[in-house]
Design brief:
By secondary structure, the chain is mostly beta strands. The protein contains one helix and 15 strands; from the N terminus they run αβββββββββββββββ. The model is unreliable at about 1-20 (pLDDT under 50).
C-alpha cells in the first residue's frame, strides 16, 4: 500500500528533503479520501470575496485518523468592522479502507466549516458545510496521475428549509510534477428548496494547483461557474495557500 500511495494523487505537496509525496485532502471545497500522515500537520489560508480570510490547522494522529479546526471572517482586508464567523469550524476524518489496485479508498468524516460570507438570517454559509460525509477516491496512471472522487454528505445547516442528502464528484489531473488541474461538482441537492441560496444548477468549481518550495502549495480557484445563485450571480475568484510539515 505504501508503494501505491507514492503514486496517489501526485499534485498535492512534498514533505521533507526526501520529497515524500502526501495525498491531497481536498479538491476545492469537496474532500478526497486522503488523510494526513501520522505526525504531520497542514496549515491553510484561503482568501475569498469580501475581504474574507479563512485559516485552518489540521493534524495527522495516525495514517488513517486526523482532525483540525478552522476560523475566519469577512472584511479582514479592507475598511470597516470585521464580520467574524459565528463559531470555530471543526473537522475529523477516518479512512476506513485503503485504496488498492481494484478498489477505491473510503473515508468518513465530519466538517462544520462552510465557505463564503456567513448569512446570519439563514444560519449558514453560501456554500454549506459538509456536515457528516463519506467519500471514495480512485487513482489511475494516465500521462501522470488521474484521480476520480465522489461522495455523499448531510449538512446541519438547514434553517433554510432544505434538509436533503447531498452528493458531489470531482477529478484531479497532474500536468507535470508542479502543476495540476482540479474540478468538482457539488450537486447542491440540499440547496435548492425553501429559502436556499442555490437555484438548482449545482456548484461547479475548478482550480489550477501549483506546488513549489517543497512543502508549499497554491491553488488559484474559480467558483460557482454555473452561476447557481441569484444572490451571488458571478464567478468567484479565490486563492488557497497550503503548507504541510512533519513534526
Amino acid at each position: 500500500m505504501k508503494n501505491f500511495f507514492f503514486h496517489l494523487i501526485l499534485p498535492f505537496t512534498l514533505l521533507a528533503q526526501d520529497a515524500q509525496i502526501v495525498e491531497p485532502l481536498d479538491l476545492i471545497d469537496m474532500p478526497t479520501a486522503g488523510t494526513l500522515m501520522r505526525g504531520s500537520f497542514r496549515a491553510q489560508l484561503r482568501a475569498y470575496a469580501g475581504g474574507g480570510l479563512l485559516g485552518g490547522l489540521e493534524v495527522g494522529v495516525t495514517d488513517r485518523f486526523m482532525f483540525g479546526i478552522t476560523y475566519g471572517g469577512t472584511n479582514l482586508i479592507g475598511r470597516g468592522p470585521v464580520d467574524w464567523n459565528p463559531q470555530v469550524g471543526a473537522t475529523v476524518r477516518y479512512r476506513l479502507f485503503e485504496e488498492d489496485y481494484n478498489l477505491p479508498a473510503i473515508t468518513f468524516g465530519y466538517n462544520s466549516q462552510g465557505y463564503g460570507a456567513y448569512i446570519d438570517s439563514l444560519e449558514r454559509f453560501p456554500n454549506k458545510s459538509l456536515g457528516i460525509f463519506a467519500v471514495l477516491s480512485k487513482n489511475y496512471e494516465l500521462l501522470g496521475n488521474f484521480g476520480i472522487h465522489g461522495g455523499i454528505n448531510y449538512s446541519f445547516e438547514h434553517k433554510d428549509g432544505d434538509k436533503d442528502l447531498n452528493f458531489f464528484v470531482g477529478i484531479d489531473k497532474s500536468l507535470n510534477p508542479e502543476l495540476s488541474l482540479t474540478a468538482e461538482y457539488d450537486f447542491a441537492v440540499n440547496d435548492n428548496d425553501g429559502n436556499s441560496v442555490g437555484i438548482g444548477k449545482g456548484y461547479l468549481n475548478t482550480a489550477l494547483r501549483w506546488i513549489f518550495a517543497g512543502r508549499l502549495q497554491i491553488d488559484f480557484i474559480l467558483k460557482n461557474i454555473l452561476l447557481n445563485s441569484e444572490k451571488f450571480s458571478s464567478i468567484a475568484r479565490e486563492i488557497k495557500i497550503t503548507y504541510v510539515e512533519i513534526f
